[in-house]
Structure formats: structure tokens, C-alpha cells
Amino acid sequence: MVQFVITPWRTRRELLQVREKLYQNTETSPPNDSYRRQAVCLISVWMQRGNCPHLVESSAIITSAILNDVPGNSSYCVRAAYSAAFCRFVTGLLDSHQDKRRKLSMYSIAKTIGLPATYVELRHQATHEELPSLPKLRIAARKALKWIWDFYWADLSIDEKDDDCKIFVREVLEQNGQGINLNMIKDRLEAYGIDELLRALGELEETLEDPMTILQAHNFRQKISDWEESKSPKRNCITVPNTTAQDLNDIRAGMVKMEHDLDTAAASIQTPKDDKSSANSTEKGWSRWEGPWVPKPIGVL
């Protein structure tokens, strides 16, 4: 009888991508905190879906405590975050290996699975005694992540049969005699994303030998690029014509001549002098009243 395993992640590669973000190679470059935050957020979504392994959750909560250990946060709050994450990691791990028929001590279970006894002692101190010091918790958190890597993450590998994206790309490449219609596979393209598609296509191209299949792979890569460009908004390009030095000199000479003509025209204009005859003009407008002022009732013209 077939037994199905329900996981919160879609494919095994998605789980491995989270592992790469949590455990980055710090030998070549410093760790990228934004990637680790993305991994923590994704694992929190997995927790809401259910069936998330305890060590995956423990990796997220311990990493979250490390990310919150920054200047400006209260030392007591940081110690509490470390302690809560560490206690949840140890307690949940040991309870999952507990014998239902016969109660075993935490030390015996820890010895069975290879968990250091100091982790159990630190868990007991954080639960029943004063919170451990911050340097002690920092060291314990990093050692816990290392132990989780050796116990769980390091053994994970991807099998080609679990790589849905590569299977999809191979099906497209096998259609040698047919054209690639992106409208028919638009949903699959949006589900995987361009980065995942190019990754799978690049891995398959290294193993291709048939010239027709290689040509099909090249066409598919071009189709993916065109599809990605069609999704991005088009930018209006403004072309600037080439202007030579002679053209600039002609433009400058024309501007000088125009300025000279304007000055000449302005000097030739004679401004009329203000005189009293303007008051007697029949043109409409305001003018100064000449003569005595005689009051009139309102409404009488």
C-alpha cells in the first residue's frame, strides 16, 4: 500500500533553498541577514500549514533569536528570546524520542540520540533558574545550529525524480518536432519562476547530445527571455540626434543675431509720455478725476 508523506514545502528543492539561506557559506562573504529572514518567514508559513519537522522549526526560531540580537534591544529581552528558542528546541526534540510505555529521563534520551548533556543542563537552567548570561546563550545558539545541521540538514539531498521543474523542462525539450507555445504552459512558467527554469534548463543542457534537442533548448531559453521581457513594463526611449561642432556654432551664431535684432527693435520703440490729455481719452479704463468732488446718493448716476 502506498503511503503518502505530506510536507509543507512544495518540492524538495524548496526545502534545500531554505537550508542554503539559513546556513550560508561565510568563508567567502559575510552572512546575508535578509536571506535568513526570508527563510525564517517561510518556515513560519510552513508551521501554519502543519507537518513541519521540529528541527526545521528549531532552526528558524534559533536563527530568529540571533537576528534579534542587535544593539538597541534590551539585554533581558534578548536573553529571554535565546532561552525560549533553546528550551523549545531541546524539549521538543527529546519529547519526540520519548518512550510512551516507559518514561525516560532527558539525559538518557539525549545520550541515545547524541545530544550533548550541556544542552539539557542549559535548558534546565533557563526553565527553572535565572536566565543564563548573554555570552553563554550566544555560544549555545550557534552550537545548536551546528548540531541541527549535522543531525538533520546535512543528510538532505535532491533526487532528480523529485525535481518537478527539471521534469517539466525535459518534457518541453522532448517535443522536438513541435513549436513551444508559451500560452499553453503559462501557469507552469509562473509557478516555477524564471530563475528556477533557467537553473533546470542549464543543468539539462550540460547532458544533451542530440542536435535537435540542443536547438530546442536554445529556443526555449529565448522564449523564456521574451516572456520575461513581456511581463516587465516597457520604457519609452528618447533618442537624441547626433549634433556636430559645426551645428553648435551655427546655432550659437543664430542666437547672437536674434538677440541683436531684439535689442534694435526695442530701441526703436518710442514710449508715449504721460500727459493730461490721456484723461480726456474716450478709451475705457481708470483715470484721475479732474474737478471738484460732488457727493451723490447711492444709486444715482
Radius of gyration from the alpha-carbon trace, in angstroms: 39 Å
- Percent of residues in helices: 55-70%
| Spans of at least 5 consecutive residues with low confidence | 235-240, 273-279
Number of helices: 12
Terminal CA distance: 112 Å
Main beta-sheet strand count, sense and barrel state: none
Q: In sequence order, what are the helices and strands, one letter per element?
A: HHHHHHHHHHHH
Protein name: Putative hydroxyacylglutathione hydrolase protein
GO cellular component, one term: Las1 complex
Region (Disordered): 267-301
GO molecular function: endonuclease activity; hydrolase activity
Describe the structure.
With 301 residues, this protein is mostly helical. The chain has twelve helices and no strands. Keywords: Hydrolase. Residues 267-301 are annotated as: Disordered. GO terms for molecular function: endonuclease activity; hydrolase activity. It comes from Botrytis fragariae.
In brief, what are we looking at here?
Residues 267-301 are annotated as: Disordered. The chain has 301 residues and is mostly helical.
SSE topology sketch:
Blueprint: H1 12-22, H2 33-49, H3 54-67, H4 75-96, H5 106-113, H6 117-128, H7 134-151, H8 164-173, H9 186-192, H10 194-205, H11 211-231, H12 245-268
Helix pairs in contact: 1-2, 2-3, 3-4, 3-7, 4-6, 4-7, 8-10, 10-11
Region (Disordered): 267-301
Protein name: Putative hydroxyacylglutathione hydrolase protein
GO molecular function, one term: hydrolase activity
